[in-house]
Each structure stands twice: as structure tokens, then as C-alpha cells.
Design a protein that fits this description.
This protein is an alpha/beta fold. Helices cover about 35% and strands about 15% of the residues. It is globular and about 50 Å long.
Amino acid sequence: MFSILKPYIFTLDPEVAHDLAIKSLKFNVLPKSIFNVQEEEMLETSLFNEKLPNPIGLAAGFDKSAEVYNSLFKLGYGFVEVGTVTPKRQFGNPKPRVFRLEKDEALINRLGFNNHGSDIIFKRISNNLPEGFLGINIGPNKDTVNKEEDFYSCLKKISPHASYITINISSPNTEGLRDFHDQRELEKLLNGINKVKKENNLSKPLVVKLSPDIYDNEISKIIELIIKYNISGIIVSNTTETNRENLSDINKNEKGGLSGQPLRDRSTKLIKKFYNETKGKIKIIGVGGVDSGKAAFEKIIAGANAVQLYTGMVFKGPGIVKDIKKDLISILKKENLKKIDEAIGINA
């Protein structure tokens, strides 16, 4: 069905198409069984000590305001991450702010954390409890002077309904956010977050979402702090502000974060570097160019415990998870592996 509708969908503005997708998913009419595959038990894994049916997740950015996560679980995702959620409701940057690069199978966005705000989102999730493993991605409002306080505020507000919480320090579309990759700034943030967790008796796993544009000499410093402050995992990686030189599409020079196929190798190499330095001490969620079983497997054998996608679904439709699951099972059999966990890091 998607292949028939895709030419029409791609005539629409990307945000209009996205809004239509959200509205369609709200009907929640598709039975989950449509997206099941045979021998899916080979893909069972665990993340932060919770069992998942498969390691394929939907990245933050699609369901920004937590409107359709239970419908997304039905599409076959092993886990779903919503957000980025900010303390106050936020419109985001001026439109147009999302651009398809069809020739490159990529997107550029400069959305700027548009979402309904933590109060509305908390009530929404309270009234429609998650039917699967739900991550909630949090970040600061654009006009906030003290960004750390926004992280603390969101953490206290949304913790009760999260399976894990992602600290987003890596979007290129909020000014100053990537400054938290600096060792002193990151330590200050993580120290404050740990204090908030202790004072409020919060125990949910925390994950830090990183930029793909960091330098190699920053990796060890980041890992040192991740371990010091008992962070459960990292997401590698967010969108990139670079990597435009080999793109073909007319939209390649739009300002914003680039995602999709041009990020695939870059994020996989970064996963491998983090895996080799952490020796499996922390969980890694790999993101960037995941649109097939092969692409997912590349990240898993590089050291990712799980993967996420978003741009891949834009270009290949809601059936992409089923296709990836089928591909992964075939790859596992070819490699004489009985379970997906056996593949983690074998090429690192």
C-alpha cells in the first residue's frame, strides 16, 4: 500500500505528510499480527534489564508529543522513543524546516524541539499507558537561560511512565545544546541529574544521546563521565551538521541536522569506537541510516545492543520493521547464529 501511495505522499510538504501519518495512526486499527514474522524469537533481546521482542526501535522525533506510541508498537517495533519533550510547550523554528533529499535517501530538519510540553504529555501518557517499552527523550526549551534546570524539571515530571529516559544533548537545532559535550558542562549536568534522581527517589535508566560530530579525543572523556555517574547507555547518534559534500539533492545545503543514508557509516564507526572503549560496560543504541536488516546488523556487530530508525520509515513506509526482522533472521541463519545477542560486537 505504501509503495502505491508514496508518489502522492512525496508531493506533500514533509510536515504535512508527517501530520497525516500521526492522524492515521491515531485510529489504531491495524492488528499487530500483520507485522509478526516467523521465528521472531531469534530476535528477542534485553535492554536495561527488560525483555524486548526485537532490538528495532523508533527514534525520537516521529512521535514528538507522545500521541501514537501504542499504535507504533503494533507496527512491530521492539521499543519506541517519544519526544523530545521540553518543560513548556514549544512551536519550534519557523517553517519550512524539514526537507527530503530523495536522491540521497536522507532528511534535513531544523525543527527545534516542537512539542506540546511536559504537562500535556504527562497527562496523555497517564491516560493511555504504554503497551511496550517506552523511552522518553527530554531537552530544554529554546528560550531557557539555565538549560540544566529544564532537564531536571522534565526528569521529575515524566519519570513515572518511562521505561528509560534519554538526555538529549545533541540536537543541532537548539543553540548551545551541544555545549554539553564539553567535559566540564557534561559533568555538571550529570551530577545535577543524579542529585535530582536521589532527592526524588527516581530509578529509571538514563541514556545520553550523542552527536556524530564529536572528535575521537572526546570519546574517552565522555565514557569516563557516563560510567562515573551510572548512566545506563548512550545513543549513537543524532543528526549531523556536516557530511554534505557528497550529496546530490538540491536541498543538501539547507541548515539543520542531516539523517538517513549519509549518516550510516559515520554512526557505525562511532558505535565501534565506543564499544571498544567501554568493553560492553554500557548499552549502546545505534542510529543512522537503518533501513534494512543489513544496515541494522552492521550496527549490532559493531557493538550496538539495539538500533533505532526514523528516516528509513519515511522512505520505506510502516512495513519497514517487518522487512528488517525478516532480513535479520535470514542473516543470523546465514552466519550460524541462534540469537541476535550473539552478534553484538563481533565485528568491533
